[in-house]
Amino acid sequence: MATHAQSNLSSIASADGARAVDGVAAPSSGPRHVAIIMDGNGRWAKKRLLPRIAGHRAGVEAVRRVARAAQDMGLECLTLYAFSSENWKRPASEVADLMGLLQHFIQSDIDEFHANGVRLKVIGDYRALDPSLVTLIEGAMARTAGNSGPVIAIALNYGAQDEMVRAAQRIAQKVARGELVASDIGIADIDGELDTSGLPPLDLLIRTSGELRLSNFMLWQAAYAELYFTDLLWPDFDGQALGQALDAFRMRDRRFGGL
Q1: Choosing from 8, 72, 87, 116, which is the catalytic residue?
Q2: CA nearest 216: which of 89, 98, 43, 121?
């Protein structure tokens, strides 16, 4: 379940997020870009005395539910944290299981994505993965590149600090080639070199399982994103839970440093 404050927000939000709170009308516009730290597969399996792979399989089903719900709710972009650059520390058998599930997901769902006009994007240093998986990923992205519908972005072998290092290296190379003056480097230059370049600004970042940290995920992009934490384990997350998070977002007053 969501934290107590979030539950209250969700309960008082109307379908369009426009109901007044304490006499003050709440914002009604929804997010364009939502990102989710999908956490809790292992704990979900442990509670049911199942192996961890069962939790990961249930997590894939949650991905399908939420991706479809995101399309129905009109999101322009949904970014999912599937495998972090720190996840290599897990047992080799679990990493192999995760990669196998990822491969199966792409192979089995790409037809549905393409038919619905979804554009698949992968962020992170995914080219460091097994070459056969890299070929599959790049083929899926190429197949959907011309679609004009929502974007489903999958973060693979992703770490925000690594992303920023790679962006800084590319900017330094531009300076070395004389294409950019160091003193002229601005926010837009860094934005343009990040893995998320071309995606809408991040509006809402959700984390499941009750943990209250960002875990090296979209640190630059989350500068002015709203944060939403829920106690639900990822395999239990669904369209209704996503709707509650969007309701909470609509109730917030986003000032971006202004009054």
Answers
A1: 87
A2: 89
